[in-house]
Q: What sequence folds into this?
């Protein structure tokens, strides 16, 4: 499957999924109320914390699927690994979901700051969340098989369908049965069942046929043992990732009134779009880089790595720049509430800057993943956990959402400009200077200058906030594309092809 098609398909689906998820939020708040939407934000956070139970197994099946396709693993060994992981996933899903169900009442009464919704309604919503979260997490195993097989066009179309049913079709259910948390979360549970079923059937289709195997698969979990070091390293780093990205949301969910937490979630979700639009690139290049490394094609692997960095710098970098420069205007246009824009805008700005740094700082992980050695990634995550988590807790407790955002943006910036250099020096000597100067600074600086200059020129016109946002976004993307050698080369080649035709 073409890497370009995979990236384009990923982008199309992620833009749709993210766009529809963000654009529909004001309607949730309007029809359900801010406090009920706070429950939706809490549901999103629970899904992230549930990932702590993954134990690094989802990335493992994705990588081993790519290696099987590259000829580095036999069909029998691959099927045995998949079955062993299925047993582990099913066990953890049952235990994790049941535990969350048992604590639903305690969460509703003792943790969440509910003032208007009936407690019984909140308890039921948390119980339904428990089942939905377990189901969606179980789908991660099957999603790993599909993405590792580079069937990302199918996966993208499937994600679009599920997002449509989850975000838009839910209004049909609520229109029929009431705009209540009960109806909303029952609808989400139904879609979660449909999602995991579709992923299961596709993964079964992609697995090597049993008739081609030399012997029975068996039911042992021993096939997982050779991958435990790799999986547990990912598990630890994934746990740190959850701690780093979700601690602020967990702390604030117990500090802020549920309605205010809903508004905070709204700002964070907008900023998360920056990471989401860089996600399709990482999803596409990780199995490709792992496959190239398995085939001994080092030069091609590094080229994929650097080209992808430039693409993320153009797309995610431009998004981060635009959102951070006009955060208040963006929120005002989106929600039609100037007061909310002024209140939440500074928080959105900090998270946009932090996510922009993070989108680029994540790249050394992709390189280590492809090589199957996450030693330095493990060390880095330990350092980040020891510094960022206490900082976020202290800042969130003392200064609320603004303090959490400040800690988030600051540490991600420090990580990008210090730790990434150290990793590159250790695993790919001679790469870092070219990577940091040529592959993202030379792209983001022109985009930032163009965006800031245009903002100063147009901000006095208070009647055209939409024009301001569009102009800033277009200028940042344009100047970033011009500055990117990889994209500039593709554009020139395309123009020459059109002229010769």
A:
């Amino acid at each position: 499957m073409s890497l370009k098609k995979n990236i384009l398909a990923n982008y199309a689906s992620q833009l749709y999924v993210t766009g529809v998820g963000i654009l529909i939020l004001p309607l949730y708040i309007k029809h359900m109320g801010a406090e009920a939407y706070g429950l939706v934000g809490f549901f999103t956070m629970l899904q992230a914390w549930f990932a702590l139970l993954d134990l690094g197994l989802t990335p493992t099946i994705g990588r081993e699927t790519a290696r099987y396709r590259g000829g580095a693993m036999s069909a029998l060994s691959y099927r045995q690994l998949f079955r062993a992981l299925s047993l582990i996933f099913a066990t953890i899903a049952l235990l994790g979901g049941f535990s969350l169900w048992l604590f639903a009442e305690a969460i509703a009464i003792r943790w969440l700051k509910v003032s208007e919704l009936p407690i019984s309604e909140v308890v039921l919503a948390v119980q339904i969340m428990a089942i939905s979260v377990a189901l969606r997490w179980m789908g991660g195993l099957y999603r790993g098989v599909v993405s590792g097989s580079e069937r990302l066009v199918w996966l993208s179309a499937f994600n679009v369908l599920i997002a449509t049913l989850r975000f838009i079709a839910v209004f049909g259910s609520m229109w029929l049965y009431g705009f209540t948390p009960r109806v909303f979360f029952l609808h989400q549970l139904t879609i979660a069942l449909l999602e995991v079923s579709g992923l299961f059937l596709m993964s079964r289709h992609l697995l090597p046929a049993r008739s081609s195997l030399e012997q029975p698969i068996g039911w042992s979990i021993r096939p997982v043992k050779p991958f435990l070091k790799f999986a547990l390293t990912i598990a630890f780093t994934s746990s740190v990732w959850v701690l780093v990205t979700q601690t602020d949301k967990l702390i604030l969910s117990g500090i802020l009134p549920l309605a205010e937490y809903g508004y905070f979630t709204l700002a964070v979700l907008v900023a998360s779009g920056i990471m989401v639009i860089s996600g399709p690139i990482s999803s596409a290049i990780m199995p490709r880089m792992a496959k190239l490394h398995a085939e001994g094609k080092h030069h091609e692997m590094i080229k994929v790595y650097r080209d992808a960095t430039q693409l993320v710098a153009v797309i995610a970098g431009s998004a981060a720049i635009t959102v951070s420069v006009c955060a208040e205007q963006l929120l005002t246009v989106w929600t039609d509430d100037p007061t909310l824009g002024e209140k939440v805008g500074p928080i959105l700005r900090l998270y946009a800057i932090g996510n922009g740094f993070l989108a680029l700082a994540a790249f050394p992980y992709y390189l280590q993943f492809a090589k199957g050695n996450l030693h330095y990634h493990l060390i880095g995550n330990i350092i980040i956990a020891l510094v960022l988590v206490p900082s976020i807790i202290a800042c969130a407790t003392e200064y609320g959402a603004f303090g959490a955002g400040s800690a988030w943006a600051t540490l991600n910036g420090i990580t990008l400009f210090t730790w990434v250099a150290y990793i590159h020096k250790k695993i790919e000597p001679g790469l870092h200077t070219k990577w940091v100067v040529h592959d993202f600074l030379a792209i983001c600086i022109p985009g930032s200058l163009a965006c800031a200059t245009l903002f100063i020129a147009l901000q006095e016109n208070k009647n055209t906030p939409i024009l301001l946002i569009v102009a800033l976004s277009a200028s940042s993307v344009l100047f970033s594309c011009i500055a990117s050698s990889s994209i500039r080369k593709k554009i020139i080649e395309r123009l020459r092809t059109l002229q010769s035709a």
Summary: The chain has a mean pLDDT of 81. The chain has two domains: 1-225, 296-501. The radius of gyration is 23 Å.
